[in-house]
Amino acid sequence: MEGHVLGNAFAAAIVLLAALAAWRLRASAFWRERLGEIARRRPIATVVVALYLGVALLDSVAWRDAQPGEASVEARSLLDRAFPADFRERSYSAPLAAVEFYGGAALAHPGRHLLGTDILGRDVLHLALGGARVALLIGGLTSLIAIPLAIALGLAAGYLGGRTDDLVFFLLSTLASMPSILLLVALIMVIGRGPVQVCLALAVTSWVNFCRVVRGETLKLRELDYVSAARALGVSELRIVWRHVLPNLSHLVVITFVLTFSQLVLSEAILSWLGVGIDGSWGQMIDQARDELARDPIIAWNLGAASAALFGLILAVNLVGDALRDVLDPHTLRERT
Amino acid sequence: MLGYLLRRTAWGAATVLGVLLFLFALFFLYATPQDVARRALGEKAPPEAIAQWLVNHGYDKPAVWNPADPLDTRLAEHLRRMLLFDFGRSDADDVPIAQRLRDGVGPSLSVTLPLFTLGLPLALSLALLVAFFRETYIDRVGVVLCVLAMSVSVLVYILGGQYLLGKLLRWFPISGFDPAPSVLLRFVALPVLVGLLAGVGANVRFYRAVFLEESGRDYVRTARAKGAGDARVMARHVLPNALIPVLTNVVVEIPFLFTGSILLESFFGIPGLGSITVDAIQSNDFATLRVMVYLGALLFIAGQVLTDVAYTLVDPRVRLG
Amino acid sequence: MSEALLHVEGLLTSFPGARGARLPVVDRVDLAVARGEALALVGESGCGKSMTALSIVGLVPKPGRIDAGSIRMRGRELRGLPVTAMRRVRGAEIAMIFQEPATSLNPVQTAGAQVVEAITLHERVARGEARRRALALFEQVGIPDPPVRFGAYPHQLSGGLKQRVMIAIALAARPQLLIADEPTTALDVTIQAQILELLAGLARETGTAILLITHDLGVVNQLADRVAVMYAGRIVEEGTRAAVLAAPRHPYTHGLLRSMPSLARPGERLAEIPGVVPAPDAWPPGCRFEGRCAIALAVCRAREPERTRLDGGAAVRCHAVAGESPQ
Q1: Distance CA B211, CA B131 (A)
Q2: What predicted TM-score, i.e. pTM, was given to this entire model?
Q3: Nearest 10 degrees: CA dihedral of B179, B182, B186, B187?
Q4: What whole-number distance in Å separates Cα of residue A277 and Cα of residue A265?
Q5: CA-closest candidate to residue C38, choices C221, C161, C195, C211
Q6: Within a 13 Å sphere around the CA of A337, how many CA atoms are in the beta-carbon half?
Q7: What is the homologous superfamily of the domain B101-314 according to CATH?
Q8: Residues C64, C15 contacting (CB under 8 angstroms)
Q9: Which domain holds residue A27?
Q10: What's the pLDDT tens digit per position in A148-204?
Q11: Closest partner residue to B19 among A178, A187, A290, by Cβ?
Q12: CB contact under 8 A, A182 and B209
């Protein structure tokens, strides 16, 4: 299957999941109230996160223009279409410059590159916006793999206890004892490079945290009176887990997801730096800037744009995550996680 | 108490075994020996060269089960070598890995040790300060600064630090390393400074949360009701109790220093374990990478057992059962 | 009440509510404790008893604060006292024991060290002397085998022993007033009786006055000389133990008494007071008990009742009572 078709499918899946979640949450007064409270507490951060998501989705919906006669044209996303089709220069140009940075040759689009162009003449604003899609992919796909796995194993361990718990706990401590960046690199080198592989590796290292939270909370919930009462009334174990334990875990999973999200994106930046990241990420842009700061005069706009885009998302997600934790769970996780 | 320590040590040993099995599955079962050989020798290497390489590096043995000699398998070989710290030679250039490690430990420690010994008191005292002024302007500004500092990527700290302090202000050499004591400090200062900056936000926030949690406990109210002042309450009651969760975090950080130095070392040109790891990544050197993951895990597990020992010294509830 | 040891007047303590408003939790409370007297402050949970106690010793947790009123100890105003002077009051003049002995002791210090600290914070004594006095206090509060318990950590002691250690800490600097906030609530029934007996005996021996905070009228009956009943931040009735327990005037006190198994008359059904104490942001403009009161009048809804003085130093805040016995 082609890359852009997969991208479209992924975007559609995310939108569908979000719609489903929104529909389910609207029905619950608890969630409606709490989520409203978060938007009230952190209005700017919430809007910023929504903006990043919007840009990422715009960049995920792509199609190829039917051009009879031409064999292969790259698929262009909605975001790409917001820029002129041939928006390239030959090399570096400063923000809003009319000529190339080195040499001073005339530009094809003088004064139009808001944040300048990179070494290959690509528009930096376009690249920086495109990084949002990669960030969403990292956070989204990784969580899509890690969370179901973590919930299944965490529930099994916490609820069944005994040998199952021992086994899961052993797995957790084994994975947790390996330094995460080294483990990530090792995994990616063995299973291969590419966006899906990177997310898979990130999932292997990040599910541990989710699973710990789920296991710990399940252990607590199992001992609660209403669970014992349900069991005494003859409710089946599976139904107890589904109706009484799982819903009481959901807020912890949501908080952990948001707090893990920023960690994942920051980890990918480090992987890019080590040469095993995902193409088009902010980490790769920063990686390129290594040489640019050594030039004379230096190229700062590429690094600046990527760092600012990365910082903005991480800060907004951190702030929303903190608010989420304060509102949804004043006790269990605190500021410790 | 002895039983507790023995139990924890046995659990640590089991975890080491788990790590080794995981590494075996990843590097010997998922990645086939032919894969590894071709990556090391290049796609176009002649079959004889590959066969010879496999023999040299012990990749030619049966994976798990050898009916002729149950101990002559890759698994047994892998376990034996790792447990005896007999790491063999690099997949990339045949240099003994152990020798590389010995050469790398010194430069690595010259960065991580000052980073650790300066970073911990710095973060603790800042957190203590912020927690002491809780619910005031100082506290709020401190928390905002921490979140801001946490949201910046390490890479930006490294690039920014090098550009600002190295190139613009010319306080330190931009990169490089010289073990001679007279100049060592000059080379190490910049990476240590950058490392401190990159880590301080998250740490201060964590320690502040710990201090605040302890400050809200009933025994603190008792101490105040006795007539103890703020400083005394902090020093004699909050701090000794907060030390317990702090201890866990400190030990958890030891392996993170180890991995954190991957970035600092490779960027500032310090020939330590981190640089070795980056070289291994760039040259597809599985053997070295495997050893680095194993050693990282080993350090972490040893750290955990040490934490448990430390607990028995600090916390009477553990010490006296 | 000229000889009052502690004199609280118009105490107003509040916490921040929605949109910057301050919500009072203790609303213009007047209290007086005489030397050697045991006053019980009674009420359901959430009525402001504990906040009253914490206000007196200046330990209202942030972001709460005292907005108005005067707290005088032996004639000296405690509000506005410098921090260091207030520290000398705590422990030395007014000591406090708390509800949860399990969490109120520092888990990483020995019981002995915590008692010694309470002594040395207020008096310059040699280490050996402090230890000797702490051991004597252990003996005094009925801890068996003091030298062993002295070196024990809190987790090695039972709940009753922990509360005895708390009492030893409270008595360490020989205070004139001991505030006991629900001292027996977290303990087993048999231990409760022992601790109450201990407190009563110690008060007699040392002449220490006690401000006892409790929701349990049984405890009041055992220990108190006088009783003040608190409801929704207000003192609604006060008087001698005999008067309040035998002939309560306020309908709330009535309700409390009728819901107590040990004090209800034989054969009578135990009654409960319908509803719960209203939260500070839901206090009605009239009498705060009006919504739960069986004999509420029209005036109760409109206007808060004034304090009506009765015979024998008693007082009550109720329109119905004020109506039948005009001042």
Answers
A1: 6
A2: 0.82
A3: -10
A4: 11
A5: C211
A6: 27
A7: MetI-like (1.10.3720.10)
A8: yes
A9: 3-62+75-83+123-336
A10: 999 999 999 988 888 999 999 999 999 988 888 888 988 988 888 888 899 999 999
A11: A178
A12: no
